[in-house]
Amino acid sequence: MKKLIAILVVFALVAGAAFAETAMGGSAEVRWTIAENSGADNAKTLTSGAVEAVGFQMSTANDEGTFGGMGKFVFWGHGPNVGHGTAGNRGWEIGPSHHKWDRVFAWWQPIPQVKFFLGFDGDGQFNTANLSRWGHHQMDRGISVEDWDASDFLIGNWDDFGMALIITPMDGLALNLAMNIPQAKTDVEDWLKESIQFQVVYAIPDIGTVYFTYNNFSGEDGLVGLTFHSGSLVDGLAFEVGGSFDLDADDDAVNFGVGVHYSGDGFGVKARAFFWPNDDFYVKADIMPWVDLGFATLYCNIRVVTGARDYHGEDATTDLGWHVNPYLRLNVGVGDFRIGALIGDERAKDEISFKLAMSMLVSF
């Protein structure tokens, strides 16, 4: 053991000399569900608390900025965060809790126009839904309803273990090639059937950014999507609009999505909506006004959703579900304090549920 520690110390000294630009940090979050009730007949009102997550990370790069990487380790008190795409199968269990590598990768940029990435980035890359995914709630996990939502409508993050090649041949243009790499031995032919994403990104000065994306992650033929995002056409207004088409589907499986953010002087509103106008028409829409109170920011998200898609294996319906989700976020410098309520019947089952929860997060 002493020999191992000595080796690690020497390695750290060598690494510290070779990689001068090193940053370390972390965060811890604790939560209390003060009261919650499912709304079902004879349901009891429950309370619970937990250490939700503790994370540590370190990033580094050489002086020339041509080689670097990051390692981030997260302990989840409630298990892997299901919001992180398919990341849940990458953790391992210790009793009722889980921990996993959330971001571990290295990158190499031999010339300014070419960058090679290898590893896993649970925060995702090549996102085309900047406003309508988790950015809608500004990462207020547990207090708000933190659904990623948009991945089937505006093609979302690539966040599996794999490699990426990022080529920027000219200002404003990026060509992104990503490949999922299986973490268990897999037949190469089978791997290639669900492993590739290719994306063209073009930023139009003073107008916005266009994303064209293809991937075959969900099937041999794959999914294509087109998204436009702008944050500069009107002061205080940012929006995105786009859609995707499933090449594997038997019918015209077209999905559409839109996200809009408006910020004024101490107030604003966010909205997003997703449409699936196929045999079973599906709509999910959120609108969330917010106001800066000085000492805190008050949000209130209002959602309506049809039940045309299966919900956790239940039969699809055309009934209309809803929720109302007010929450308060206090900025206290090294973290924040959040408290909020969630009232609704999102599955349209005439069972109005409620939840009152608080969270405290500190960064270091």
Low-confidence stretches: 1-19, 79-99
Spatial extent as radius of gyration = 22 Å
Tell me the helix content: under 10%
Query: By helix and strand content, what is the structural category?
Result: mainly beta
Determine the N-to-C terminus distance.
30 Å
How many individual helices? Answer: 2
Q: CATH class, anyone?
A: Mainly Beta
Spell out the helices and strands N to C. HEEEEEEEEHEEEEEEEEEEE
The tally of structural domains comes to 1
Counting copies of identical and different chains, the oligomeric state is single chain
CATH topology: Porin
Amount of beta strand? over 45%
CATH architecture annotation name: Beta Barrel
Mean pLDDT: 80
Structure summary, number of beta strands: 19
Name the CATH superfamily assignment: Porin
* Global shape: globular
Biggest sheet layout: 18 strands, antiparallel, barrel
What topology does this entry show?
Layout: H1 2-18, E1 21-37, E2 46-61, E3 67-76, E4 92-94, E5 97-111, E6 114-121, E7 162-170, E8 173-180, H2 188-192, E9 196-204, E10 208-215, E11 223-234, E12 237-246, E13 254-263, E14 267-276, E15 282-292, E16 296-306, E17 320-331, E18 335-344, E19 353-363
Antiparallel strand pairs: 1-2, 1-19, 2-3, 3-5, 4-5, 5-6, 6-7, 7-8, 8-9, 9-10, 10-11, 11-12, 12-13, 13-14, 14-15, 15-16, 16-17, 17-18, 18-19
